[in-house]
Amino acid sequence: MARVDGKVVFVRHALPGEVVEVSITEDTHERYARGDAVRVLEAAAGRVRPPCPVAGPGGCGGCDLQHADLPLQRELKRQIVAEQLLRLGSYEWIGDVESVPPASGLGWRTRMRYQVTMGGRLGLRAHRSHEVVELPEQGCLLAHPDQPVPGGTYEPGSEVVVAGRGRSSAVLVDGELVEGAGTIVEQAAGRTWRVSAKGFWQVHEAAADTLVDAVMAGLDPRRGETAWDLYCGVGLFAGPLVDAGVSVRGVELSRGAVREATRNVPKAKFEAGRVEQVVRRWPGRVDLVVCDPPRDGVGKAVVEQVVRREPRRIAYVACDPAALGRDVGTFAAAGYTVRSLRAFDIFPMTHHVECVAILEA
Ligand SMILES: C[S@@+](CC[C@H](N)C(=O)[O-])C[C@H]1O[C@@H](n2cnc3c(N)ncnc32)[C@H](O)[C@@H]1O
Fold it and tell me: Confidence band (pLDDT; 50, 70, 90) for 152?
């Protein structure tokens, strides 16, 4: 972030403390503008040459941190998590963002969403733009090496999704399956999972195991307890809880995901619907709660529903530290405070970071 004559400028591809020449890319707001660092005059320690030739100013919008080495990427994310939790949740976090293999920070994406250029080639969107940047010769460096790379040409403007990897993968063009099977088989948490090629599964190859381990260690479930898996997808957290002898109910918006969750974890009870509407109908108290909401977080209504059932512990899996900070503040006002918080680098080369917070009364 820089200031020019008192106006804030958000600068992509710069690092804190650097002196850079900025090209203004958007100046439509009174209080702030956006820019891109097109020339580095004084580089920060930790600046590196991006491994991908289309990362950087005016390039692909997917990776916004390739110009920093991985320790610096994690330090920047640590600062963001700490700042958001303090500012929005009044919680002082002392910890580091944990690295997750592969150590290169490349080749981890098991789901790719390509756009097709006007020339019919595969590309990825530029930042805050409909423009499509053609993939370099070696493809996207974040894509898992065992993912099929769709060849040939496509209808300009179409979307090509590649889900899964190796023998269990699929290619969809504008939502239609053109290669592979409609169901992807994944292995995680000592179980086999079936997930629709169109459905949600953790994108980083090690994310499912990493998050399950953090949630299970934090909740420390006891045989005979009850649990809720909120925003359950295909039942990723319900499965290991059932395996630990816990009786689980799950809720998820997508009907397809609920059908898959029921097949993946037959011993748990799943319901399709909005968390905020469904849990109010569930009876009695609950011992453990897992929340893994989308970026907006859970919000006040869900916090109220959860604390009313007096759970022993809550595991909150969050992909947006700001939403987590806000919800941590709401939980604290309702008597539940953070017992531990871990942050994981499951989106290396991008500014994204995943947290697992464990709360208790
Ligand atoms: C971050 S994903 C987590 C899925 C699952 N826990 C996993 O790790 O595979 C969030 C899920 O919440 C679901 N969702 C979004 N809004 C919802 C709502 N209001 N009520 C229930 N589920 C919702 C989405 O369909 C998505 O599957």
Answer: confident
Residues 175 and 115 in one domain: yes
156 falls within a domain? yes
- Both 82 and 10 in one domain: the answer is no
Q: Give residue 176's domain range.
A: 111-186
Residues 97 and 214 in one domain: yes
Tokens representing 178 are 């053109």
Examine the residue annotation and report whether 319 is marked as an active-site residue of this protein.
yes
Closest C-alpha to ligand 1, atom 7: 233
Assess whether 117 and 21 both reside in one domain. Answer: no
Instruction: Write the CB contacts of 281 (distance below 8 Å, at least 6 apart in sequence).
Output: none
> What secondary structure does DSSP assign to 255-321, as a single string?
HHHHHHHHHH-TTSEEEES-HHHHGGGS-S--SEEEE---TT--HHHHHHHHHHT--SEEEEEES-H
In this structure, the strands spanning 337-345 and 97-99 are parallel
Q: Do 144 and 272 lie in a common domain?
A: no
Q: Which atom of ligand 1 is nearest the CA belonging to 211?
A: 8
Task: Verify that 122 and 18 share a domain, yes or no.
Answer: no
Please name which of 294, 281, 272, 287 lies closest in space to residue 354, comparing C-alpha atoms: 294
The total domain count for the chain is: 3
Q: Are residues 254 and 327 in the same domain?
A: yes
Cβ-proximal residues to 256 (8 Å cutoff; 6+ apart), any chain? 196, 198, 199
Q: Are residues 176 and 250 in the same domain?
A: no
Q: How is residue 114 annotated by DSSP?
A: E
User: What integer pLDDT is reported at residue 102 of this predicted model?
Assistant: 96
Task: Return the percent helix, strand and coil in the chain, to nearest 5.
Answer: 20, 35, 45
Determine which one of 60, 63, 140, 319 is catalytic. 319
Burial of 271 (0-12, 13-18, 19+ CB in 10 A): middle
Q: Which pTM was predicted?
A: 0.96
Atom of ligand 1 nearest to the CA of 234: 9
Task: Tell me 151's DSSP state.
Answer: -
- At 117 the pLDDT is 95
